[in-house]
Design goal:
It is a single chain. The protein is 13% helix and 38% strand. It has 4 helices and 22 strands. Strands 4, 5, 7, 8, 9, 10 and 12 form a 7-stranded antiparallel beta sheet that branches. The chain is mainly β. It folds into 3 domains: 110 residues, no CATH class; 104 residues, Thrombin, subunit H (Beta Barrel), CATH 2.40.10; 92 residues, FlgT, C-terminal domain (Thrombin, subunit H).
């Protein structure tokens, strides 16, 4: 009987150890957490999980809650065990009553997945265009009274093909994004400079007025139609559907070092299957060292050093936000499935 009891206890210990090993939770997690204003879903996930992007996989859906991914200040997140496996459960705060008298909170009041101020600021200042789009776009030829620079509310002249579009975005064409592995040109960075409205058109010359400027408008700036671009306030983290292997091509700001909450350009896009919300692991390239015994150079294995979430995709490339950086990262570091 004693041996049987010891066997049962041992089996329980082994089973609990297997559950703990399988669960992606941190070692010390709170039983409950009350959501506060200013939180992000990623911050809360990081509190509970070793890999925050696995949030949807361990989420226990309460059928009374229409969309558990929308989380509001005052909501309570609890760690519970269902069929012996740990899960996270959401309980609405007192300000949201799930009863015949439902109080509907505006979507904007839900906490965001990512720090949207960083993402939104980047998206409003950048876009990626093809060489053909850049070459075909009208361009600034002169300022009013032959000025070189144009400021807010100033008139200026542009040349090109103008249709019925009443207003344009002003963009400074930057360096192309070139795939460091294949040398393929993936797109050209267009930096937002401002906006302008058309006053008159005479042949291929238009007179415009600068209605918004981030920097003074120079001769040669390109005019592009405004993008219909809606920024989602909630990104649902997920792994890519297929195998992804790429590199960090560039980091916003023209620097080479990459850190927490930096925006990076990745040489993989929609044609490779990347989607908004996909999370990739960043791997630090292994250094090349000399094997003094074999008298040859060898490359050490790459080491996982961070995470990046894709927030904007194009056909051939994507932009992502670095969510975690365990060590200094750099341009040309690898990105792979987490």
């Amino acid at each position: 009987m004693k041996k049987t009891l010891l066997g049962v206890i041992a089996a329980c210990v082994i089973a609990m150890a297997a559950i703990a090993a399988d669960a992606p939770f941190n070692d010390n997690v709170p039983d409950k957490y009350t959501v506060k204003k200013g939180d992000t879903l990623w911050d809360i996930s990081d509190l509970f999980l070793r890999d925050p992007w696995l949030w949807p996989e361990i989420w226990y859906v309460n059928p009374q809650i229409r969309n558990p991914h929308l989380i509001y200040p005052g909501d309570v997140i609890s760690l519970v065990y269902i069929d012996g496996r740990p899960r996270l459960m959401l309980q609405r705060g007192r300000d949201v009553k799930l009863s015949p008298g439902v109080k509907v909170l505006p979507h904007a009041e839900a906490i965001p997945t990512l720090p949207l101020d960083i993402v939104n600021n980047f998206l409003t200042r950048n876009r990626v265009v093809t060489q053909e789009e850049a070459d075909a776009a009208p361009y600034v030829v002169a300022g009013h009274e032959k000025r070189i620079l144009t400021g807010l509310n100033d008139s200026f002249y542009a040349r090109g093909e103008f249709d019925e579009t009443p207003a344009y975005g002003l963009y400074r064409i930057g360096e192309p994004y070139v795939d460091p592995e294949t040398d393929e040109m993936l797109g050209i960075r267009a930096q937002d400079i401002g906006s302008a409205k058309v006053k008159t058109v005479d042949g291929d010359i238009a007179t415009l007025m600068a209605t918004r400027v981030v920097e003074e408008v120079r001769i040669g700036e390109r005019l592009l139609p405004h993008e219909e671009r809606r920024l989602e306030s909630n990104f649902y983290p997920s792994g890519p559907d297929g195998e992804i292997e790429g590199v960090i091509m560039a980091v916003e700001g023209g620097i080479t070092q990459v850190g927490h909450l930096d925006v990076v350009a990745i040489n993989r896009g929609e044609r490779e299957g990347l989607k908004v919300g996909n999370v990739l692991a960043i791997f630090k390239r292994g250094e090349t060292v000399k094997d003094r015994i074999a008298k040859e150079k060898i490359t050490l294995p790459s080491e996982r050093a961070g995470l990046v979430m894709v927030f904007r995709t194009f056909e051939k490339m994507s932009y992502g936000l670095v969510l975690n950086a365990e060590r200094p990262l750099a341009v040309n570091d690898l990105v792979k499935n987490p």
